[in-house]
Write a structure and sequence with these properties.
347 residues; alpha/beta; six-stranded mixed beta sheet; 30% helix
């Protein structure tokens, strides 16, 4: 079941009159995990709000499998039942006196027998790593990380066709974040038809899971790519004010030192590739222990940089010193969409 957004113009706030998202058109396919990235204020949450019906568009439309999300100024209930959304602040998802009531409320539109409701609630809690005893607790007495897990359980208990997660790892400790990533892997394997859209700053966790990445900048889609393309052209992330995930940054630094190793999210795979390259006689020139960091969205890496074999700074694509050197760079990104979008009109 695809989602098609056509020339979508959306205000920055629910009662806003000026468009923030500017003529966004895209198609999301069921069964894919799409990661939406961008600097703070780039429009990630606004896009998710528009796709889930939280914020009505000023113009343009959204359709699920050809069925409009909005009908006569209201979200179509039939479409809404196929959507599960976890907002950025856990408390926005929670309102009932107990966790049990939260989960049962999510199941109300489906009119399921109590036994099936109980089975679904147990499965949802197990999926997010919480014990059955939490059903009797007030969600507002739980920690932020536990509230986020309850919000996720309340979202998935209805088995939606589409799952939208806004900064799902915020407030989670490393163990909780790893558990969430593992849950997403299991979910994709067990329910392959589910489309998942994640807006996040946590590229290290979610980029390795992605089938597709949307890079937002200033309310527009600056790039639409698959992760290997971003690994070959990390400037697309940097120019949007997004930092590089560790595995891409490591590959960039190794390339600066003369070792052409493909970026791989698996540390073991990258270590093996480095070992193979070194045993093949490739020298790693001028390596220092200092780790470079993105300095600005202009595409450069900040000092200190590893020295180069020639003693000269590496050249970028345009020949300026100090930029990210990339090898085997494709002539075009294929999936990137940086062209201007149609203008917005108020409806």
């Amino acid at each position: 079941m695809p989602i098609v957004a056509d020339r979508l113009c959306v205000p920055a706030s629910a009662d806003g009159k000026e468009p923030f998202l500017q003529g966004v058109s895209l198609t999301l396919q069921g069964g894919e995990l799409t990661v939406v990235v961008g600097a703070a204020g780039s429009g990630k949450s606004t896009l998710l709000d528009a796709l889930t019906g939280v914020r009505p568009p000023l113009s343009g439309n959204v359709a699920y499998d050809g069925r409009p999300l909005w009908r006569k100024g209201r979200v179509d209930p039939a479409v809404n039942r196929r959507i599960g959304a976890l907002f950025q602040q856990p408390g926005q998802n929670l309102f009932a006196a107990t966790v049990e009531r939260e989960l049962r409320y999510s199941l109300r539109p489906y009119r399921l027998p109590k036994a099936e409701q109980d089975a679904r609630m147990a499965a949802a809690l197990a999926a997010v790593g919480l014990p059955p005893a939490v059903l009797a607790r007030s969600p507002f007495t739980l920690s932020g990380g536990q509230q986020r897990r309850i919000g996720l359980a309340a979202t998935v208990v209805a088995d939606p066709d589409w799952l939208f997660l806004d900064e799902p790892s915020a407030g989670l400790d490393p163990t909780g974040t790893a558990a969430l990533a593992e849950w997403l892997r299991r979910r994709r394997a067990m329910v392959p038809h589910t489309g998942i859209v994640i807006a996040t700053h946590d590229l290290d966790t979610f980029l390795p899971l992605a089938d597709r990445v949307l890079v937002l900048r200033g309310g527009e889609i600056a790039a639409d790519a698959v992760p290997p393309q971003l690994a070959e052209r990390p400037e697309l992330l940097l120019q949007a004010g997004v930092g590089l995930p560790a595995y891409i940054e490591t590959a960039v630094l190794l390339r600066r030192c003369g070792l052409n190793v493909a970026a791989d999210p698996s540390a073991d795979a990258m270590a093996d590739a480095i070992s193979v390259a070194l045993h093949a006689g490739t020298e790693l020139h001028g390596w220092t222990a200092a780790r470079a960091r993105p300095a600005s969205p202009g595409g450069n890496l900040a000092e200190p940089q590893p020295a180069c074999p020639s003693g000269q700074p590496p050249e970028s694509e345009g020949g300026s010193p100090g930029s990210i050197p990339l090898t085997a760079r494709p002539a075009s990104l294929g999936g990137c969409s940086a062209e201007p979008q149609p203008g917005c009109s108020r409806s």
